[in-house]
C-alpha cells in the first residue's frame, strides 16, 4: 500500500478527518480504494478531462464520476444551463416544463421508451421498474445475472455466482432473506440456464433485469445469442424485459446499448448521464406498462426532489450537446486506440491481460482467460491490477479503483491525452512486470 501521508499529505489528512464522521470516510463504498489497497484522493476541483486533488496534483479522469461526465467536467453549455435554472429556484415540489422537455428528449432518443418517470438515482430507477414489473404482471419472481449491479435495491442485492434455479441469498447484512427469495440469479451469457428457468417457472416470472452490456463486473459484452434468447423467452412467457441502462444509456450511443444491439426491451432504467452530473434517474418504456404508475395507475412511486429543475436543466443541456455534437465516433476511435496501445505495451512487458471494450467503456483484466462472465472476470490477478492502478496514478492517470469496474473515455480528451495514457500504461506495465 502506498503511504499517502507522504505522497499526497492533504488527501491523507482529509481522509483521516472524514473517517471520524462518515463511515469509512466516504459516502459510497467504491470511492474508498479498498480494491487497490490504499486510501482515496480527495478532490478539490475538476475541469474538462482533469481532476485536481487537494495536494494540487492533476489527473486524467477515466472515472468521470462513475459514468455521468461523458462531456468532461464543467462543459460550458451544462454550466450555463444549470446556473440559469438555479436563478429560478432550486426545487418547487410542483411540475415544471423542464421535466416534460427532458422526458421528450429521452423518448426521442430511445425508441423503446414511450413514457418516462424521473427519480433521483439509478437505484430508485431499478427499484421502481421492478415494482412496476411485478404490479403490471401480477407475478413475483425476478431474474438477475451474477455480476450485474443495479444499485442497492434489497431484492437485487443477491450473491453473485448463485447457480441456475437456486433462489437468491442476500449479500449484505440487513437484507432479509424474504426480500431476495423471489430473485433468481443466473450466469451472464448463459443461454441454456435461462431457457431452463423459463421452462420450469416462466409463467411466474415478472421480469428479467440486466445490464445489456455489463460494466459492473468490469466491461463484459453479451453474446448475440444470449440477447436473442432473452427477448424470445420473455415475450413467449409474458415476462417484462428490463434493461438497466443507468451506465450505458447515452454512453454507448445516443440511443444507448439497445440502439447498438438493435433490441427493444419493455422497460429501461437510466441515471448518470441523463442528470449531467446531478442526481437524476429515470425509468421508462411501453406506455401501457408506464400507465400503471400512480397517479395514472395503482403502482405507487413518488419523490420529493424528483424532476428537480436544476438537475433537469443539466440533463437537457447534456443530452442536447450529445445530440447536436455527437462525440461517439471520436470516443470509439480514441478508446480503440487506448486498447491497442495498452495491449501492445502489456505484451512487450510480458504481462497477460484482456482488454474488453464497447465504445467508450473498457476494462483491462489482468488474466490470460477471455472474460465473458463473473467467473472468468474473477480469474484476474487483482494484486497486479492494484499495482498497475497506483503506477498509473503516479503518472497522472486516474483509473477506476477496482478490477471489476469499467473505465470511461470522455469527450474532453484530446489525442495528446490518449497518447499520454498509453505512454503511462507502457511504463506501468514494465513496473508491474518487475513485481
Ligand atoms: N445500475 C447500474 C448499471 C449502475 O451502474 C448503477 C450505479 O453504478 C446503478 C444502477 C445505481 O445507480 P445509483 O448509484 O445512481 O443509485
Automatic annotation (TrEMBL):
Its cofactor is pyridoxal 5'-phosphate. It is found in: Cytoplasm. It catalyses: (S)-4-amino-5-oxopentanoate = 5-aminolevulinate. Gene3D superfamilies: Aspartate Aminotransferase, domain 1 (3.90.1150.10), Type I PLP-dependent aspartate aminotransferase-like (Major domain) (3.40.640.10). The keyword Isomerase applies. The keyword Cytoplasm applies. Its EC number is 5.4.3.8. One of its GO terms (molecular function) is glutamate-1-semialdehyde 2,1-aminomutase activity. It is an enzyme of class 5 (isomerase). Homodimer. Belongs to the class-III pyridoxal-phosphate-dependent aminotransferase family. HemL subfamily. This is Glutamate-1-semialdehyde 2,1-aminomutase. It comes from Gemmata palustris.
